[in-house]
Amino acid sequence: MKSGNINYAAIAATFFLLMISSQAQLSSTFYDSTCPNALSTIRTSIRQAVSRERRMAASLIRLHFHDCFVQGCDASILLDDAPGITSEKTAAPNNRSARGYEVIDAAKTAVENVCPGVVSCADILAVAARDASAAVGGPSWTVKLGRRDSTTATRALAESNLPSFRDTLEVLIGTFSGKGLNERDMVALSGAHTIGQAQCGQFRERIYSNGTDIDAGFASTRQRQCPTSGRDDSLAPLDLVTPNSFDNNYYKNLIQRKGLLESDQVLFSGGSTDTIVTEYSNNPRTFSSDFGAAMIKMGDIEPLTGQNGIIRRICSAIN
């Protein structure tokens, strides 16, 4: 093409690519015309579940987190075993600990009754996490929508991609960085441990370690419900002070060496995240704001949009 001439074909191609790109972006108004009552329907369902069991708030936030870290926020964690699908539900980080599947199913059923085949299970997971946080006094945020559901799930990826309660600070930083989340995002998201509980098998080594990074009185208290062997499923609150309220006591606990899991306490152990923990312990508003921002950022991890993926009618199975 000579200088000064207009290449209309190139302009058209560029416009087409931009149009596809814009269509693939998540948007808070995605269902405004196709299912205007979607968000209120989900919120009602989640509030009912949390009112029945306050611990469910933590479980729903965790379910969204464990979904997004394995092949993106695509509801793969909800799929049961099927030909070609190895369910993530039985992966070590999820097995007998991830919960709330029936709450998501109930929300999905409620939404299907309002507008069948429109709202994805992946979006319901994202909205449920926000509504669960708000239901226990935690922050709320504007959820971006438009994700579609995967047709695959991989137990092996769940085994390798999800953080472990035994991870060092360096490993945790690397894991979150691999998902586009920085240290501040990681520390903020870890604050979800201000609610919820952990199983004895996950913190036994820590409370019997006699290490310098754990308060002796705290360890003794936790040992009462978690013997040196057996009772692996016995539960203890991640935040001993206000276990049912979404606040910043989690960070105050870390400064006092009262983090229940190894992966909690490493956030305040002389490393690069100490200053962030201190900041959040002193400023609950900053924590609340950063938590919401980090949840939005996490919800952007590799979503399926446009023509990719499907809208599952039942969250646990392919249509």
TrEMBL record:
<dbReference type="InterPro" id="IPR002016">
    <property type="entry name" value="Haem_peroxidase"/>
</dbReference>
<feature type="binding site">
    <location>
        <position position="74"/>
    </location>
    <ligand>
        <name>Ca(2+) 1</name>
    </ligand>
</feature>
<feature type="disulfide bond">
    <location>
        <begin position="121"/>
        <end position="315"/>
    </location>
</feature>
<comment type="function">
    <text>Removal of H(2)O(2), oxidation of toxic reductants, biosynthesis and degradation of lignin, suberization, auxin catabolism, response to environmental stresses such as wounding, pathogen attack and oxidative stress.</text>
</comment>
<feature type="binding site" description="axial binding residue">
    <location>
        <position position="193"/>
    </location>
    <ligand>
        <name>heme b</name>
    </ligand>
</feature>
<dbReference type="GO" id="GO:0020037">
    <property type="term" value="F:heme binding"/>
</dbReference>
<dbReference type="InterPro" id="IPR010255">
    <property type="entry name" value="Haem_peroxidase_sf"/>
</dbReference>
<dbReference type="InterPro" id="IPR019794">
    <property type="entry name" value="Peroxidases_AS"/>
</dbReference>
<feature type="binding site">
    <location>
        <position position="72"/>
    </location>
    <ligand>
        <name>Ca(2+) 1</name>
    </ligand>
</feature>
<feature type="binding site">
    <location>
        <position position="247"/>
    </location>
    <ligand>
        <name>Ca(2+) 2</name>
    </ligand>
</feature>
<feature type="active site" description="Proton acceptor">
    <location>
        <position position="66"/>
    </location>
</feature>
<feature type="binding site">
    <location>
        <position position="194"/>
    </location>
    <ligand>
        <name>Ca(2+) 2</name>
    </ligand>
</feature>
<keyword id="KW-0479">Metal-binding</keyword>
<keyword id="KW-0349">Heme</keyword>
<keyword id="KW-0560">Oxidoreductase</keyword>
<feature type="disulfide bond">
    <location>
        <begin position="68"/>
        <end position="73"/>
    </location>
</feature>
<keyword id="KW-0408">Iron</keyword>
<keyword id="KW-0575">Peroxidase</keyword>
<feature type="binding site">
    <location>
        <position position="70"/>
    </location>
    <ligand>
        <name>Ca(2+) 1</name>
    </ligand>
</feature>
<keyword id="KW-0732">Signal</keyword>
<keyword id="KW-0106">Calcium</keyword>
<dbReference type="GO" id="GO:0046872">
    <property type="term" value="F:metal ion binding"/>
</dbReference>
<comment type="similarity">
    <text>Belongs to the peroxidase family. Classical plant (class III) peroxidase subfamily.</text>
</comment>
<feature type="binding site">
    <location>
        <position position="88"/>
    </location>
    <ligand>
        <name>Ca(2+) 1</name>
    </ligand>
</feature>
<feature type="disulfide bond">
    <location>
        <begin position="200"/>
        <end position="226"/>
    </location>
</feature>
<dbReference type="GO" id="GO:0140825">
    <property type="term" value="F:lactoperoxidase activity"/>
</dbReference>
<keyword id="KW-1015">Disulfide bond</keyword>
<dbReference type="GO" id="GO:0005576">
    <property type="term" value="C:extracellular region"/>
</dbReference>
<keyword id="KW-0964">Secreted</keyword>
<feature type="binding site">
    <location>
        <position position="239"/>
    </location>
    <ligand>
        <name>Ca(2+) 2</name>
    </ligand>
</feature>
<comment type="similarity">
    <text>Belongs to the peroxidase family. Ascorbate peroxidase subfamily.</text>
</comment>
<dbReference type="InterPro" id="IPR000823">
    <property type="entry name" value="Peroxidase_pln"/>
</dbReference>
<feature type="binding site">
    <location>
        <position position="76"/>
    </location>
    <ligand>
        <name>Ca(2+) 1</name>
    </ligand>
</feature>
<keyword id="KW-0376">Hydrogen peroxide</keyword>
<feature type="signal peptide">
    <location>
        <begin position="1"/>
        <end position="24"/>
    </location>
</feature>
<feature type="disulfide bond">
    <location>
        <begin position="35"/>
        <end position="115"/>
    </location>
</feature>
<feature type="domain" description="Plant heme peroxidase family profile">
    <location>
        <begin position="25"/>
        <end position="319"/>
    </location>
</feature>
<keyword id="KW-0325">Glycoprotein</keyword>
<dbReference type="GO" id="GO:0006979">
    <property type="term" value="P:response to oxidative stress"/>
</dbReference>
<feature type="binding site">
    <location>
        <position position="163"/>
    </location>
    <ligand>
        <name>substrate</name>
    </ligand>
</feature>
<protein>
    <recommendedName>
        <fullName>Peroxidase</fullName>
        <ecNumber>1.11.1.7</ecNumber>
    </recommendedName>
</protein>
<feature type="site" description="Transition state stabilizer">
    <location>
        <position position="62"/>
    </location>
</feature>
